[in-house]
Specification:
- This protein is α/β, with parallel strands linked by helices.
- It has 2 domains: about 150 residues, Alpha-Beta Complex (Aspartate Aminotransferase, domain 1); about 230 residues, Type I PLP-dependent aspartate aminotransferase-like (Major domain) (Aspartate Aminotransferase, domain 2, 3-Layer(aba) Sandwich), CATH 3.40.640.10.
- It is built from 13 helices and 14 strands.
- The strands form 3 sheets. An 8-stranded mixed beta sheet has the order 2-9-8-7-6-3-4-5, sandwiched between helices. A 4-stranded antiparallel beta sheet has the order 10-11-14-13. The chain has a two-stranded parallel sheet with strand order 1-12.
- The longest helix has 26 residues.
- The chain is globular.
């Protein structure tokens, strides 16, 4: 009925496969490894309640009024201090924009940079939300395989050389450097430096998406691309959804002041401003200087869950050629590769019959590959459910192999 009324852009838009999938696994009998949700038992609800009370008492009328597009001034100041002390990143207030979580950041960056047919270099696999944002602005993709050290930077250079000869417009390289979603791998320091050098050589941007950076369970932290690169080379996205409350929908973007200014203009036609009330609440929480202790608790609990899932995979997965999984140093996910003859999309209905759910890996590929892969989340289910769920999944894969 409305096909001739919708814009051309709507023809490239798709519902998020994972958002739709979550509707299917609301059944409490199903053990879900599908979402990327934090453990709700770890939400600091009392802290939230105290912060809300303080905000309403101190600045209630102002907090529920419209606010500046650039973000709550107090929150920006707290973030600038935190970036300097925690991440050795010095910025000024013109180089930061508060967003409605990092997914809005992906959309805004796409909005100001991508013209139809522009090329975005992505990992194979990569975050579905990133693919969706870029695709909605009619980007073309060049995929780069991953290994245990992240994106294969040697292949990036080959692609850039070919694209330059063909006079193709490459807008940016999209990287999730820390505990990548979905694969769980981390980009090595050598590859971070090499990607920056390539971006300089070919005069393109790097879009760094780093929602899991503070959730490291082993090994030493690696400097972010934003910390390593010249200020005009990297746009970096952050969120509080994984370390505090996803329901606050708060994140921020770091970048050159000219880029931030253009993002502000784009945001004004999107939502005018991120809710000032939730920004004021987060500002109050940061002022209390308790978030680092909270993150330490998350790290302890999620480290245990990661170990539980890895041990369960060792115990319950059948011994098959070409069956493997990643062992992430942090984050929320690990990645399972099955023998090539298995199709995890087709296997999903059988998994639901066994009351266990995952995300088929093909959703994280723009080119319809990765049919024999799947993503597992270990942050949301309990230890008991992790063991039981992996036992069910291992039994299913064994049946499929036989």
């Amino acid at each position: 009925m409305f096909e001739d009324k919708f814009s051309i852009r709507t023809k490239t838009m798709k519902r998020s496969a994972i958002r739709e999938l979550l509707k299917l696994v609301l059944n409490p009998e199903i053990i879900s490894f599908a979402g990327g949700m934090p453990d709700p038992s770890l939400f600091p609800i009392k802290l939230l309640g105290d912060a809300v009370k303080s905000v309403l008492e101190r600045e209630g009328k102002r907090a529920v009024q419209y606010g500046p597009t650039e973000g709550h001034q107090g929150l920006k100041e707290e973030l600038i201090k935190r970036l300097e002390t925690r991440r050795n990143i010095k910025i000024n207030e013109n180089e930061i924009l508060i967003t409605t979580a990092s997914q809005q950041g992906l959309d805004l960056v796409s909005k100001i940079f991508i013209d139809p047919e522009d090329i975005v270099i992505v990992g194979l696999p990569t975050y579905l939300g990133g693919l969706g944002a870029f695709h909605s602005y009619r980007a073309r993709f060049i995929g780069i395989p991953l290994d245990d050290n992240g994106m294969r930077v040697d292949l990036v250079e080959e692609k850039l050389r070919v694209l330059r000869r063909g006079q193709h417009r490459v807008k940016f390289i999209y990287v999730i450097p820390d505990f990548q979603n979905p694969a769980g791998v981390t980009l090595s320091i050598e590859r971070r430096k090499k990607i920056i050098a390539l971006a300089e050589k070919y005069n393109i941007l790097i879009l760094e998406d780093t929602p899991y950076r503070e959730l490291r369970y082993r090994g030493e932290s690696i400097p972010s691309l934003f910390a390593l690169a010249p200020r005009d080379r990297v746009v970096s996205l952050y969120t509080f959804s994984k370390v505090l409350f996803p329901g606050l929908r708060l994140g921020y973007i770091l970048g050159d002041k000219e880029i931030i200014n253009q993002l502000v203009i784009a945001k004004q036609s999107t939502d005018l401003c991120t809710p000032p009330f939730t920004q004021a609440i987060l500002c109050e929480i940061l002022k209390r200087d308790v978030i680092d202790e909270h993150i330490k608790k998350l790290v302890v609990r999620y480290r245990d869950k990661r170990e539980c899932m890895l041990n369960s995979l060792d115990k319950y997965m059948p011994e098959l050629p070409d069956l493997s999984w990643t062992k992430p140093d942090g984050g929320l996910f690990l990645w399972v590769t099955l023998p090539n003859y298995m199709n995890t999309e087709k296997l999903f209905s059988k998994a639901l019959e066994k009351k266990v759910a995952y995300v088929a890996g093909s959703y994280f590929y723009y080119n319809d590959s990765g049919k024999n892969t799947l993503r597992l989340n270990f942050s949301y289910p309990t230890l008991k459910l992790i063991i039981k769920g992996i036992q069910r999944l291992g039994g299913l894969i064994k049946e499929e192999a036989e």
